Amino acid sequence: MTETPPKRATIAAVARRAGVSPSAVSHVFNGRPNVSAATAERIRQAADELNWRPNYASRKVSGQGGRSLGLVIARASDTFGRDPFFMRLVAGLTQPLADIGWSLSLTLVGADDEARVYREWWAEQRVDAFLLVDARTDDPRLDLVGTLGAPAVVLGAPVDAAVPAVTVRDDAAFAAVLAHLTELGHRRVARVNDAPGLAHTQARDRRFAEAAADSGVEPSYAVWDAEAADPVADLLGRVGDVTAIIVDSEVIAAEIVAHAPELGVSVPGQLSVVAWEDSWVSTLVRPRLTALDAPVEESARTAVALLERLVRGDAVTSQTVGGRQLMVRESTSAAPGTPA
């Protein structure tokens, strides 16, 4: 039996708790001066206790208003702007949302403000559902959306059975990459990530270890340190004698390809580089990046379809979309010392 989510509080409920009329609540939240400071404080406290905010959606000129999907991203604006994945995701969400008459409400926040924005957007009825990205292994947002009664879908590795997820079928991706690399003579391969706390990072670590064991590759792991004086030099100094690396971030992979030769490491002559993501960025650097193209647009369409059903009150389950495709380019070649 599907559990009924908690209902949103109403202005009448806030008024009853504060012992005032609904019009007094309205006056306080509209900034009108005809309510005493003590009463206004009591009203705001009641609103906080009930997790209520004014219904901004009802103020739309049409009086009807469309639904909106909330996408709250805890990243700095410069990081977000340089990440091609998010550009593809936003583009991929646009058409399926337009097809069902929804809009996208997107904001960038600091980690400390993340929960507050979820609560405010939901209480103010600015959004009708949330799409969660960058899910962490112990992610407080999962409990939060459950407490709020907000429909939500995770994009990435499933973390909590109570919140459905849209996951890329990655089972064969590492096998495909390592088959490509072992064919070129590589036997020592490192996996490089820049977000060890994310659920999908740990899931990829496990799949990499399994694929490495199956293919006879000696695996190693490294975390990108963006705070290092020279992050590329720092990484190359820590990965040791590996002859190939698989990098989660396409942007970081491009930075390695561009800067490694300046440090005396030729790509791909001494080090082959594979990016876990693929976009226009992979084709701008020289040598062009061998990369895995993910079905970002398919993931976006699937997530929107699940969220629409959740808002209607339907029960849904997690979905898996098509796997990544290996795009072989010039950043991978024969391992050093491999006979021609």
Structure description:
This protein has 340 residues and is an alpha/beta fold. The chain has three domains: 11-52, lambda repressor-like DNA-binding domains (434 Repressor (Amino-terminal Domain)), CATH 1.10.260.40; 68-168 and 296-323, Rossmann fold; 173-294, Rossmann fold. 40% of the residues lie in helices and 16% in strands. It has 13 helices and twelve strands. It has helices at residues 11-18, 22-29, 37-49, 77-81, 84-99, 114-123, 140-148, 173-183, 199-215, 231-238, 250-259, 280-284, 296-312, and strands at 68-73, 103-108, 129-132, 152-155, 165-168, 188-193, 218-223, 244-247, 272-275, 290-293, 319-321, 325-327. The strands form two sheets. Strands 2-1-3-4-5-11 form a six-stranded parallel sheet, sandwiched between helices. The protein has a six-stranded mixed sheet with strand order 7-6-8-9-10-12, sandwiched between helices. Strand 3 (129-132), helix 7 (140-148) and strand 4 form a beta-alpha-beta unit. Helix 8 crosses helix 9. It is elongated, with a radius of gyration of 24 Å. Residues 59-65 have low confidence and may be disordered.
